[in-house]
Structure formats: structure tokens, C-alpha cells
Amino acid sequence: MGDDTATGTSTGGPRVVVRRAIPTEPAVRGSESLFVTEAARQGVRPTRRMLYVGPEPAGDDVAAALRVEPGTEVLARRKMMFADEVPVRVATSYLRLDLFGGTPLADPGFLRPSLQAAIEALGHRFGHAEEHLVARPPSPSETGTLRLDPGEWVVRILRAAYSRDGTPVHVLETVCAATRHVFPIAQVTGADQF
């Protein structure tokens, strides 16, 4: 396979750049899929594939956000996002098993109408979220999964969502191919003054 530096992959496809807004518009956040909605608005063909649903040990950052000990088994829901068939993101939702084990959130496949709606259907109302963004070199598995070329970095976004009573109900880790993303930043009020 020939190297195609325009895509940042070795697939030889066209250059793909998608946007991931920070913060996310409420209408987009509440849609069936944040990625599908954002990408479709940008004129690229979005697709998703569920990679894994099941228990796995929580890493340090995820454990801290979920307020469990590192290594505690949590429910993971991992999916891959593609834009025009180019892998651009891996997103993993982490949920506490004591709250969501044995519920529809542990079922394989995508949840309808959305993961957030399924969480709320179980009696949890979202109160606030915290988002941390870090650019770093990829792990070997991220390099392979996202088909990154040597020297390409990733952007990792860790969003921790808490219920109105402060209970951690959802941690979303999104690992984005850095050369395939733009992160527009807007004021929540819509007044773009920086």
C-alpha cells in the first residue's frame, strides 16, 4: 500500500478532516449520535461500528472520574467512527457496574434513541460535565486501530458527566486522530468573544 500523506493514513484515500465542537451544541449532544450528526452537517459520510460492550478494569483517569478504585471492573461500550470510510475516532463510554450492570446499557449494539436517554430512563438526570483534552503520542493499539502514520499524534478527550446529585453516571473517552480533526470552540451563550 502506498503512503498518502494527505490523509495521514496508508490507505491512499482522500483527505478527511472532521469537526468536534467544544462545547457541543445541546441539539447535537441530544441527538442519537453526536458524531453522525456533526459529520453529516459537514458533508462527510459518517459510519460507526461497535467494537466491544462488556466489563473491563478502569484505568486511573476513568476510575477517578467514576469515583471507583483503579482496576475496578466497569462497563465499557467502545465504538469506532469513520468519515468517508477513514477511521477518525475511537470512543469508549465507561459506566459503573453497580449502577448499570444488568440494565439495557450492558446489552450489545447501539442504544436507541441514545445512551444518554437510556441513562435518564433509569432515573439519572444529568447535572453537569467536565471535559479534559490532551494531545499525546498514540499507544500501539491506537496507531493500528486508527491507521496512523509514524509521528502522528492523537487528541484524547475525557468527558465526565454527573447527575444532579453529583453521582458519576457516564465517562466518555474519545481518542481522535489529531490530523483528522478540527476542534472549534464556542461560548455557550453564543457570544464568540475570546
TrEMBL record:
Domain UbiC transcription regulator-associated residues, every copy: 41-182
Superkingdom of origin: Bacteria
Gene3D superfamilies in UniProt: Chorismate lyase-like (3.40.1410.10)
Bilayer-crossing regions: none
InterPro entries recorded: Bact_HTH_transcr_reg, Chorismate_lyase_/UTRA_dom_sf, UTRA
PANTHER family: GNTR-FAMILY TRANSCRIPTIONAL REGULATOR, MANNOSYL-D-GLYCERATE TRANSPORT/METABOLISM SYSTEM REPRESSOR MNGR-RELATED
Protein name: UbiC transcription regulator-associated domain-containing protein
